[in-house]
Design a protein that fits this description.
164 residues, alpha+beta, 5 helices, 32% helix, globular
């Protein structure tokens, strides 16, 4: 996936950019709503992203500032683990980029990307129940909240993209 507008660039990570990826997860405010992962698990996640670029449409990509190429965060699109008939999108932004409308831009880019693949699968997203900021972004991006998603260890807010 490659996407660019006046505010953000979304692109594949380069192998030497693991330090950018890993530092994103060092901020406790950024990871507050995410399941705990070890540094080794983040390394595996990054390496899987790199191999995914060769293997198919879905992966994790870096989000960069279009003005100065500063690292903003990462986003993903993948077959939804809880329902293979759906495609899940998600993103994580560095705290210094919160509240600037970038989450909405990333969401739009991911929706456009997934729609362009013509999979006919519903596009979904999940958030921690307390992550009101991300829920507002999803609602603004034409997602509707449906029943909560229950996993073995927790419950998540579950959203589906409304088809026009």
């Amino acid at each position: 996936m490659y996407y660019e507008d006046s505010t953000i660039i979304i692109r594949e990570f380069a192998p030497q950019e693991f330090y950018l990826f890993s530092t994103l997860f060092e901020n406790e405010n950024v990871t507050r709503y995410l399941p705990y992962k070890t540094p080794e698990e983040y390394k595996e996640m990054f390496e899987k992203a790199l191999s995914d670029y060769q293997e198919g449409s879905f992966s994790r990509w870096g989000v960069f500032n279009a003005q100065n190429n500063d690292f903003i965060g990462m986003c993903l699109a993948r077959i939804f683990l809880d329902n293979p008939e759906q495609v899940e999108i998600g993103y994580i932004l560095g705290e210094n980029y919160w509240g600037k409308g970038l989450g909405t831009n990333v969401c739009k880019a991911l929706i456009d990307f997934c729609s362009s693949l013509n999979h006919e699968k519903d596009i979904v997203a999940v958030t921690n129940l307390d992550n009101i900021g991300s829920q507002k972004v999803l609602l603004k991006s034409n997602f509707a909240r449906i029943e909560n998603l229950k996993r073995e260890d927790r419950e998540l807010a579950y959203f589906i993209l409304q088809k026009n």
